[in-house]
């Protein structure tokens, strides 16, 4: 192995990454090396991650349930808080069952690991999140990749394999994290029905934003809880049978400790707010619309999305790096995405409830 050479190659290609120390956060402001930056990188779209909470209520919760059970959920780590939360979340979103995991990444690994012995054939969007890709790959599931949001090509693939005696599963993000593009759920449901397939949707960047009108006809929904939900963890929404299967076969559930009980408090706390966050949602989508109108003036060839994720795509790393540095020097902190996260260098701008129109201007 030549680890140093690998790092040198990354630096020469402009693909080397480093961790940035964040000293504090307050609303839209991040503090880095004593300097304040407007934060356009956060996934806390509704601002729920910075909600105040009642210390006395928190203390009562910990006194009743403990801080951390320090065990797998299948041994002694399955706090009764899990049962209450999973029941309420599944009822709110219209599913038979819900299962909470340590992250959205773990949720996707658990789903596909549980399906690996079912001899399924997966049809996956080209730009699906890495956790979906890894879940499929690590479970050695046969897959067909279709071009991003190209549902005509997806149908061609489904038709080609229609006579193949394998269960078909269509897999897609709802909102794609690198460019904010939104899946056409209605078309996916039509194809699912026409070709007798299952439909799995990762709604990590949409859960709580109501970008999808409903989850009817979706077999499994996975999600992170660290974005609009403003907490930490992951969730799978499914049938009772799928939950039972994941409980018995999902390695990322079985072979890890459950969430610390104090994390369950914050999932529960945010749940009370996200159900009634219409004012925050309205402001966020108003900002999204305003950003799109401004973007079309200055970058008419860039794609737009009603999601809170915006992007500007560049042809060269040099141009992307130059603009990123210019924004950073002006105390505007955006996400700088490079290969292999994206094919072309991209600046991603994430809007949140904390922003206003002046920040966009």
Automatic annotation (TrEMBL):
InterPro entries linked to this entry: Aminotransferase_I/II_large, AON_synthase_class-II, PyrdxlP-dep_Trfase, PyrdxlP-dep_Trfase_major, PyrdxlP-dep_Trfase_small
Keyword match Hydrolase: no
Entry cofactors: pyridoxal 5'-phosphate
Pfam families to which the protein is assigned, alphabetical: Aminotran_1_2
UniProt-listed Gene3D superfamilies: Aspartate Aminotransferase, domain 1, Type I PLP-dependent aspartate aminotransferase-like (Major domain)
Assembly: Homodimer.
Protein name per the record: 8-amino-7-oxononanoate synthase
Species of the source: Staphylococcus felis
